[in-house]
Design goal:
- Helices cover 35% and strands 12% of the residues.
- Strands 3-4-5-6 form a four-stranded antiparallel beta sheet. A four-stranded antiparallel beta sheet has the order 7-8-9-10, with no helix packed on it.
- Helix 2 runs antiparallel to helix 3.
- The longest helix is centred in the N-terminal third of the chain and has 32 residues.
- Bound molecules: FE2/S2 (inorganic) cluster.
- The site of FE2/S2 (inorganic) cluster has 12 residues, from loops.
Length: 357
């Protein structure tokens, strides 16, 4: 490595056959602080001032932490956080800016050049490596199948079979999940009550006030002995009541809601996250994963984000005792929209068969 402090004009390595001329380094311009004592002192004071600012920031942050009597009120918490945050910002920024300014104005300013060395190994090293490989093959005894047919045969077999040890359990655990048709149905049935998640208490229509949201599971889900979580993952629903005047009833779904109460699958149609952020004023449901937004007032249609279809609606009614019940299962598969791409919609639920299974 060498330095080029004294460089005053571009250098050239001269021409060689087939090469272009080395442009060299740009002309070195000294900085103001390099040639002017006053500028040097000024830069030094500036750097010192930034470090001093950092010290003040530290004092503010630590002092604020101990001196401010933070109560549980939001305003008090905000004020304390603001003072401590400001102190930390000054402490860090002062050091950062000071160090940069120091390096740019006061540290020695000279170009560093490191000559490239040839990347290719020497002939001697290359020959040595090849010889090592040959020796290894020779030592292992696999160079001639005829010499060690048993070892070569069992070794190759072991290598070929070993991946199965990992693959078979993985594939076996898929179990019935290979049958994607079962995702087309949930446990909702005609007359099944909508109950609160997680305690499973039924919900009266009168309990659902305008603007409220209930996280819902099917009645009896908690009593399932097997596959309870799988069934829950498919059947979870959001029950929301809107002012009936705000609700745009969808064609063919006139009797799927009750006095402004609607039920939609909670499983996002993008890649299946739970959609659970409801904005009461706009009637928008937001999926926290990739911000798909569904308009509950308009058939849960997608108004923003990557989801490609509305949330499936669960048709509901009210029974004789005033409890909300399902009219049927969903009329389309819930969750991510790969059904259509796999051409399986016809194997799933069609409008005509929805809910009768
Ligand atoms: S899973 Fe909901 S937006 Fe992606």
């Amino acid at each position: 490595m060498s330095t080029t402090d004294d460089q005053t004009e571009p250098t050239s390595t001269g021409e060689s056959p087939g090469a272009f001329e080395d442009p060299g380094l740009p002309y070195h311009r000294p900085r103001k602080a390099d040639v002017d004592q006053k500028a040097d002192k000024k830069a030094e004071r500036q750097v010192a001032a930034m470090f001093a600012l950092s010290i003040v920031g530290t004092i503010v942050a630590v002092g604020g932490y101990f001196a401010i009597d933070m109560t549980e009120e939001i305003a008090s918490i905000r004020f304390t956080n603001m003072v401590i945050g400001l102190g930390i910002f000054l402490a860090m920024a002062g050091i950062g800016f000071g160090a940069i300014h120091w390096a740019k104005t006061l540290m020695r300013d000279h170009e560093m050049v490191e000559e490239r060395h040839e990347l290719r190994s020497s002939d001697e090293a290359r020959e040595g490596a090849i010889q090592n490989l040959k020796d290894g093959v020779e030592d292992s005894g696999i160079s001639g199948v005829k010499r060690r047919p048993l070892l070569v045969g069992t070794g190759l077999s072991a290598l070929l079979l070993a991946p199965l040890a990992a693959l078979v359990p993985q594939l076996g655990n898929m179990g019935g999940d290979w049958n994607t048709k079962k995702f087309a149905h949930t446990m909702w049935r005609q007359g099944m009550r909508l109950t609160r998640d997680p305690d499973g208490t039924p919900i009266r229509a009168a309990d659902v006030t305008i603007g409220s949201v209930f996280h819902v599971i099917p009645d009896g889900l908690n009593d399932l002995e097997h596959h309870m979580l799988e069934e829950k993952a498919k059947a979870v629903v959001l029950l929301i009541r809107l002012d009936p005047q705000d609700l745009k009833v969808q064609e063919g779904k006139e009797d799927w809601s009750f006095d402004g109460i609607v039920a939609y699958s909670k499983i996002c149609t993008h890649v299946g996250c739970p959609v659970a952020l409801y904005e009461q004023q706009t009637h928008h449901l937001l999926c926290p994963c990739h911000q798909s937004t569904f308009d509950v007032a308009d058939g849960a249609k997608v108004v923003f984000g990557p989801a490609k279809r509305p949330l499936p609606q669960l048709p509901i009614a009210v029974d004789d005792e005033g409890y909300i019940v399902a009219r049927s299962d969903f009329h389309e598969p819930i969750g991510p929209s790969y059904w259509n791409r796999l051409g399986q919609t016809s194997d799933g639920l069609s409008e005509s068969e929805g809910g009768d299974h």
